[in-house]
Amino acid sequence: MEIRDSSNTSIFKLLAALNKDDANRYSVALGDRLGRTNSKEQYAYIYKNSLVKVIAKYTFDDSHADIFEREPYVVRFSAPSAAVTDFFMIGIHATPDKIETNKEIASLIDVYEDARRKFQIDDAIMMGDMNADCGYMSALNRKNNALVKDHRFVWLIGDDVDTTTKSTNCAYDRVIVAGKNMIAHVGKAEPYDFKTRDKLDSVLAQKVSDHYPIIFTIQKFFIIIFQIS
């Protein structure tokens, strides 16, 4: 998330580093550069070719409502060896705004329904920096948010979890799953506290990222969400 490289080279340097010892181990699905200002961002999914295949991908068309600062990036995966063999993922970096954040999160229902109609499957993961806590989204707004109130969706990161490397204690990053098969086979989601594990001071940790990676599992493989800053 939050790839801001206008030269469009950094993500491929990362991919090359991952594939240094095996040229075809990982591939990437890269979204469009998005944003209403000069500061554009991209979403990317890096995946292991031996485990999953990309079946379809698209940026959600928000032109009719213009709700999202950065429209969600939707990718459908096939995972023949996993417990959930066919699912789609929705990546979102919600805008940090007391009013608009709430709207964007609620509107993820529309993104889910759009992908569900296109793919004719229910199993899905919505994930990313949703800014769903602290000054951007109050406890009352979360309680009343349409996505929270819709019981088809299960939130794997609780409101009491800290997903930031800064001194704040905020659950900005979230993982939300839908579909009976996905809900039945998804595991616990939690931040990977590299700051503590690798004994980094706050300055060095924030040079890596101001957010911790979020790690969670679907039976037979695991998924990491990481925000590049």
Structural account:
It is a single chain. The chain has a single domain, classed as 4-Layer Sandwich (Deoxyribonuclease I, Chain A). The relative contact order is 0.13. It has helices at 10-18, 100-119, 139-144, 146-149, 180-185, 194-197, 202-208, and strands at 26-30, 44-48, 53-59, 73-78, 86-91, 124-129, 153-155, 173-178, 190-191, 214-218, 221-225. By secondary structure, it is α+β, with helices and mostly antiparallel strands. The strands form 3 sheets. It has a 6-stranded mixed β-sheet with strand order 3-4-5-6-8-7. The mean pLDDT is 93. 24% of the residues lie in helices and 24% in strands. It contains 7 helices and 11 strands. It is globular and about 50 Å long. β5 (86-91), α2 (100-119) and β6 form a beta-alpha-beta unit. It starts with 9 loop residues before the first helix and ends with a strand.
Strand content bin: 15-25%
Mean pLDDT: 93
Q: Write out the strand line-up for the largest beta sheet, numbering strands in chain order.
A: 3-4-5-6-8-7
Q: What summary fits the major beta sheet?
A: 6 strands, mixed
- In CATH terms, the superfamily is Endonuclease/exonuclease/phosphatase
- Highest-level CATH class: Alpha Beta
What's the helix count?
Answer: 7
- Strand tally: 11
Q: What gyration radius follows from the Cα positions, in whole Å?
A: 17 Å
Overall structural class, as computed from helix and strand content, comes to: alpha+beta
Ends distance: 8 Å
